[in-house]
Design a protein that fits this description.
There is one protein chain. The radius of gyration is 19 Å and the shape is elongated. Helix content is 8%, strand content 46%. It has a 6-stranded antiparallel beta sheet. The chain has a 6-stranded mixed beta sheet with strand order 10-9-8-7-12-11, with no helix packed on it. Strand 9 and strand 10 form a beta hairpin. The chain is built from 3 helices and 12 strands. It has 172 residues and is mainly β.
Length: 172
């Protein structure tokens, strides 16, 4: 399965102060993740931008980018999407980018010929993510927990699950 090198990580919502800092709405697990980068980019990775400093404030990332030194320049960045280079990110074991999960074939862990559907969406619910599995126009929701998701292999394009009793109409 082909993976994009650059991933959308957040969107600039407004300037923060008068020295060119911007408020960024994170599109990742937490705003802290956004503060770990020395460089991000615009336009799908085509325009690199250096992060001079970063911090978290009220659930948002506050970034000082080298392309803005005033409130006016920061305001001109409003609405721009920031991208990260996946090669600069180390993920924990069993942690994946959502982009790498979308499109995975979802099969039974014990009987791989049993196809449950294709993973089409991931919803963050707080306690755990929920995977949306679609087959024949019907969407089923499964919790993204270790008891259900046995293995995930984006390279093979497959996720193996063991549904909890009652999760699917046809499951025991």
């Amino acid at each position: 399965m082909e993976r994009k090198r650059y991933l959308e990580i957040g969107q600039i919502t407004s300037p923060h102060g008068v020295r060119g800092e911007v408020r960024v709405q994170p599109w990742c697990d937490s705003p802290d993740f956004l503060t770990e980068f020395d460089q991000l980019s615009f336009n799908g990775g085509a325009v690199p931008v250096r992060v001079e400093r970063a911090r978290v404030h009220k659930g948002m990332a506050i970034l000082k980018l080298d392309c803005a030194s005033s409130m006016e320049e920061a305001n001109a960045l409003r609405g721009r999407v920031l991208w990260c280079d996946r090669q600069e990110v180390e993920l924990d074991d069993r942690t994946f980018f959502i982009q790498d999960l979308i499109g995975l074939r979802v099969v039974d862990a014990d009987e791989p010929s049993l196809f449950y559907g294709t993973l089409t969406q991931v919803s963050a619910t707080g306690a755990n993510d929920v995977y949306h599995i679609e087959k024949d126009g019907k969407t089923r929701l499964i919790p993204a927990i270790r008891q259900v998701v046995i293995s995930t292999d984006p390279d093979a394009g497959e996720m193996r699950i063991r549904p909890l009793k009652g999760l699917f109409d046809d499951a025991d």
